[in-house]
Design goal:
With about 220 residues, the chain is α+β, with helices and mostly antiparallel strands. Among the domains are: about 50 residues, no CATH class; about 60 residues, Hypothetical Protein Ta1238, Chain: A (Up-down Bundle). Helix content is about 25%, strand content about 20%. The strands form four sheets. It has a four-stranded mixed sheet, with no helix packed on it. Strands 5-6-7 form a three-stranded antiparallel sheet, with no helix packed on it. A hairpin with a 2-residue loop joins strand 6 and strand 7. The longest helix is centred in the C-terminal third of the chain and has 22 residues. The radius of gyration is 35 Å and the shape is elongated.
Amino acid sequence: MGRELGRISGPLLADNLRRNGVDLAFETDLLYLNVVDGRVGVQTDAPSQHLTVNGTANSPFLRVDSQTDVGDFTISANNIQYVVGAMYISPNQSSNPTIKTTKFATADLEISNQLIKNKTGNSDISLSPSSGGQVVFNTKTGDDGSTALGDVSRTSKNDPRLEAYATVDEANSSIGVVLAMSPVAEDVRKLLVRVQNDLFDVGADLCTPIVDNPGYDQIS
């Protein structure tokens, strides 16, 4: 350890650190201290921010209180902005490329789990593929254009039977809205509840084909 020849403190130290308006440079631009504007430059003698690094900087931890600029990116609070154009997030394409997030949102649209939500109100959501493209919804077992009936048999999604029991279900739902949202006399309420129960039975009958030897016991 070298011999201590002297020590400065107090006003003399403060004045020396301020350098009376004269910048301090180590090897010209290896480390540059702009004492007038309060800026530090690494490998640059013209720092434009509080800390300007001309090259690559590696840090296991970076904390920014307000805003920082990294190349063409600006990081501020919970926002990351690419200041020169569109920003693309591309995972490793060589092995199972996946981007995972619990929620994705734009200014007007929010996607979370299996829900796509319009954030601007009750306006429509339009899915518009490019010229010649298609919007494809995969439903696993229904991708071939068929659907299951009450007895687990399959039928075309264009089967009039489906339209019939779907219409019955809509009528039942409409009655439910009336019962839930409107003041209804007690005798009328009892009648509507009975109609709902009958509509459930009608829907069950419509979704179950009549066969000679059903594979289940009939309810009596």
